[in-house]
Amino acid sequence: MGFQTLVNATQLSAVYEPMTQTLYLLAEGKAQNYLSGIAFHPDDTFEEGLKFNLMGCVGPFSKGSRHYQIDHPFKTPKAPSEVVIGDASGLQVVPVRCLGSDVVRAAQVQMPAADHLRAL
To answer: E strands along 21-105, which residues?
Structure first.
């Protein structure tokens, strides 16, 4: 059985859609092949706003790395101006881009796993 660890991200962004009251967190980067299930996890112990940790499950060990891209929705009634995201390189304060009240974000292609694999 694997354990959870923080994952490094080369790109982080956040978008809020007021019509559906949904916060979308996006991450992209390179991960070791032994990491799977890369996803954002809310940190309920953080008291100064919204904080999420970018984590993946470790194991079984294998060589090499791969590109990953995730797009994770969270329901929240209020639009935050920023979110804090913890990844392997530390804490990042990410500004939230708010869509217009009449704009619905385009549907994103959903993969069966939490982390999306792309052919390089």
So the answer is: 22-32, 35-42, 51-58, 65-75, 82-87, 90-98
